[in-house]
Amino acid sequence: MSGLKVTIEADGGSRGNPGPAGYGAVVRDAESGEVLAERFDTLGVATNNVAEYSGLIAGLRAAAELNAERVAVKMDSKLVVEQMSGRWQIKNAGLRPLAAEAAALVGKFAAVTYEWIPRERNKAADALANRAMDEAAGIATEARPPVEARPPVDERPPVKETPKSWAPPASLSEATRIILVRHGETPMTTAGRYSGRGDVPLTDEGEAQAMAAAGRVAGISPEIGAVLSSPLLRCRRTAQHIADAAGGLPVTIMDDLIECDFGVWEGKTFAEVQEGWPDEMNAWLASTSVAPPEGESFQTVAKRVRGALATVLQAYPGKVVVLVSHVSPIKLILRDALAAGDAFLHRLFLDAAGVSTMDVWPDGNIAVRSVNETAHLR
User: Can you tell me where the transmembrane regions are (predicted)?
Assistant: First the structure.
């Protein structure tokens, strides 16, 4: 497609600003108007401006994949258009890394122009952004576009960059504190077997670990706003100990905190899977888009966990919330919070009843305070 000229229609939005956010982008042939690519995805909790920049970046990436030479960007975001055109300063430090990422992509083309258009002329991108926001808020939507019309490798949202400063946040009280607790030990834990959707109980040691984790959580904060749990028994029992220690709070079940579905690998050890499914195992380890046979990919787990976290942040702003879950969901939450790569998922070890803590501010800033605390288990 040498010499290809395209237009990019991009948009993004947030239900709450910040709130459940998403972006959309449509790439068209500049002459025929034919749609060549569509991109949309969720961003977890973010602001409108972060979502709009994310839409632009997604569109530029898609145009680069098409080997476009000249690009005309059309957006109803006056801020993004003016900033990327160089007419307005980027005063929000959190947007500068996104603008820099977009500028780096612009360098791949012979020419890029920017044009502000009214919202009614940006309906296609707006519709995709709204579908993504629905997903972020946990609202069912129609089937997504075919895989070839979406990013081919990593479907994670662009990192919601925060101002780079050693200064502490202006107000710690505005943050929602998320305490992530892995369930206590089960028979599958001790045997080193994949334990996904199987509803196994805690061992006696697991019960003791859960009680110890409850004590650690109480030490982090004596005022717990809510205790949310995966629907599986091992998490519900762990959550109940935490809720009891917090003064008899109810345990709220959150289905999207459930473990990854390991499909036919359920109950098997790593060595057994490597022997029986070597090619499938290698593909699974190489990409978060690959699922175990009859199972669920980490990308799929990440999407539902992001939606769950967005719901929590909306429902309990400024509170301390305990999420009792499993290895995969907790690793994915921490990966996104730390803006880490996928290798993080294979390098981080989470102990049974380990505790991790992070703070999330209304503007999208995140501070990870601890990862896999285990001193309470000794």
Answer: none
Q: Is the pLDDT of residue 151 over 50?
A: no
pLDDT more than 90, % of the chain: 70
Instruction: Tell me the CA distances in angstroms from 360 to 18, 36, 134, 239, 317, one per residue in order.
Output: 11, 37, 21, 22, 9
CATH architecture observed for domain 5-149 = 2-Layer Sandwich (3.30)
- Threshold 0.85, pTM exceeds: no
The answer to the question of whether 234 is labelled as a binding residue is yes
How many CA within 13 A on the CB side of residue 171? 8
pLDDT for position 17: 77
166 has a pLDDT exceeding 60: no
* Residues forming the active site: 183, 259
Can you give the residue ranges of every domain in the chain? Answer: 5-149, 172-377
pLDDT score recorded for residue 46: 84
- Options 1.10.3720.10, 1.10.260.40, 3.40.190.10, 3.40.50.1240; CATH for 172-377 is 3.40.50.1240
**Average pLDDT of the segment spanning 328-343:** 92
Lowest mean pLDDT among 15-19, 111-115, 143-147, 290-294: 143-147
d(CA 219, CA 334): 21
Order of strands across the sheet that contains 320-325: 251-253, 226-229, 320-325, 176-182, 355-360, 366-373
